[in-house]
Amino acid sequence: MVPEAYDNARKDWDTYFMDIAYMAATRSRCPRRHVGAVLVQGKKLLGTAYNGAPMGVADCSEDGCMIVEEYELQVEDGAERMIKKQRCIRTIHAEQNLLLFTDRIDREGSTVYVTDQPCWTCANMLANSGVKEIVYHRVYHKDSEKVEALMDVKGIVFRQLTPYEPPAQASRNVVS
Ligand SMILES: [Zn+2]
Ligand SMILES: [Zn+2]
Asked: What range(s) does the CMP/dCMP-type deaminase domain occupy (predicted)?
């Protein structure tokens, strides 16, 4: 159901930029995960990016995903267990592509809107990129705790946009 406010109200800036991140995500050719990210300075859009193979290199839709298996520690009801997870490592993550295609000077004090909570590597890079705020929508539990601790130390505002409804044409579910 579409929230009532969307019927007649103009989109607020958070919604506006997150919608653009979701539209960027539709460019991704990895069937496992579609992630989009945008860089915003004030109200100005400075860049958009999505997860994908390097330019000119076969992507997941052409050569299939590049799957690795990893064990991940999960805590459920106080009990720890190792769970085997599959990941596609063919793509450069959206946040990393965003950093590759924007300038350091433009990023100083900027905000990143990203469809998914950043993984540890992306968070670590964003922490050193000049951005002062990261807004995400879908939760990514794996690295959540250490990412939040890092943002705390760095004084970077780190928040989930909720409630939020992605644009219908961009909200296709992906495996986690
Ligand atoms: Zn893939
Ligand atoms: Zn990442």
From this structure: 12-158
- Return the CA Rg of the chain: 17
Q: How far is CA 69 from CA 59, 86, 87, 90, 109, in A?
A: 19, 5, 6, 13, 37
C-beta neighbour count of 13 within 10 angstroms: 13
Please confirm, yes or no, whether 95 is among the known catalytic residues.
yes
Ligand sitting nearest the alpha carbon of 93: 2
Tell me, yes or no, if the pTM score tops 0.85: yes
Give the model confidence (pLDDT) of 120-136 as tens digits.
999 999 999 999 999 99
Task: Compute, in angstroms, the gap from residue 57 CA to the centroid of ligand 1.
Answer: 13
End-to-end CA distance of the chain: 24
The pair of structure tokens assigned to 33 is 């995960």
